Amino acid sequence: MSNILVTGGAGFIGSHLVKRLVEEGHTVKVIDTLLRGNKIDRTIKNDVELHKVDIRDRDQVISLTKNCDYIFHLAAILGVDVVADHPVETMEVETIGMQNVVEAVLHNGIEKIVYASTSGVYGHSAIEQSVVENIQLDPRTSYAIAKRYNEIYLAALFEEKGMQSTSLRFFNVYGINQDTRMVTPRFFEQALEDKNITVYGGGRQTRDFTYIDDTIKACIDTCMKVKGCEIFNVAHESELSIKDLAEEIVSVTGSKSTISLIEAPKKRYDYEVERRVGNSDKLLKATGYKPETGLRDGLTVVFNDMIKGNS
User: Fold this and answer.
1) Residue 280 main-chain phi, psi, to 5 deg
2) In this predicted model, what pLDDT tens digit does every residue of 41-50 receive, in sequence order?
3) β-pairing, 27-32 with 3-7?
4) Is residue 269 domain-shared with residue 161, that is, in the same domain?
5) For a FRET experiment, which of 16, 55, 171, 223 has its CA 20 to 30 Å from that of 215?
6) How many CB atoms within 10 Å of residue 243?
């Protein structure tokens, strides 16, 4: 078993990753600002060493990564509206944070970084097909540009210093304990209150929704099975319009909500890509990855957990 540090480990994806790592017997340490609270499962809280630290704090990052074997680097500013309102902080957290993590890896002899990148690096490119890792990229937002910069930075570090890393381009991850900065929990919140579900634009824009458990398996498998410096899509490979997602959530919840199409704010323009669906063939060949949870099943799990939490 390994000693593992997870940055952003108290957030949505991070907390699920931490739980799986603890269950597999690893020793886990978490760095998180806790600005969005602590989502780490209460059943494992005593098994996790949690530190309230900003990833931009170089000395703390270097100190807390001593004796670690791997770092899962998930710390980031998230949410379209939050990122749009705080572009400078978004880029600083990404770039300064990554520089600190890299310095810690080199200083402490850590084997590898697994980095949470984003499908946002594809921007408006290849909207007529599912996207693969080697197509021309088109990052337009501060978030996507910073993520792409870090991918290039990691590739340069491997070439120059032999530092191993894996960058994972997540496609619309959803699941239990996600907050309403993201579209799926926002729709659930509106549906459970029988409010209008607000969909930007015509609702025809499509995304590829990937269940959290499939995402976490990809994180761990690429860490343990892949050598060198690689980039992988982590997608379900299923295309769904945002309007259809809203209708599916209405169906799952039995809500009386109706769907309301509204004009997207101008600041969201670069995020409102008309079509995006991922291709995970490269990940399949490297690790055997196959998404196991369909949308209806995943949404049902989320709904049942929300009902349990409200009861």
Assistant:
1) -110, 25
2) 999 999 999 9
3) parallel
4) no
5) 55
6) 18
What's the CA gap between 271 and 139, in Å, rounded? Answer: 10
Contacts of 185 (CB under 8 A, 6+ apart): 174, 178, 179, 302
Residue 176 structure tokens: 């239990």
Neighbours of 149 (CB within 10 A): 16
Q: How far is CA 311 from CA 66, 227, 304, 305, in A?
A: 43, 46, 11, 10
172 and 137 within one domain: yes
User: Over the stretch 44-71, which tens digit does the pLDDT of each residue have?
Assistant: 999 999 999 999 999 999 999 999 999 9
CATH number at residue 198: 3.90.25.10
What's the rounded Cα separation, in Å, for the pair 159 and 145? 21
Helices (H), the chain: 12-23, 58-64, 80-85, 87-108, 142-161, 183-192, 212-225, 242-253, 281-287, 295-310
Task: Judge whether residue 128 has pLDDT over 70.
Answer: no
Number of domains in the chain: 2
Give the DSSP per-residue string, 14-82. Answer: HHHHHHHHHHTT-EEEEEE--TT---S-TTTGGGEEEEE--TT-HHHHHHHTTT-SEEEE------HHH
- Find out whether 290 and 213 touch, Cβ atoms under 8 Å: no
268: pLDDT strictly greater than 80:
no
* Per-residue pLDDT band at 269 (split at 50, 70, 90): low
Structural domain of 261: 183-204+239-274+305-310
Distances (CA, A) of 211 to 67, 201, 217, 294: 32, 25, 10, 8
Which 8-state DSSP code applies to residue 274? S
Say if CB 62 and CB 108 are below 8 A apart: yes
- Give the pairing of strands 27-32 and 229-234: unpaired
Residue 136 covered by a domain: yes
Side chain identity, residue 235? A
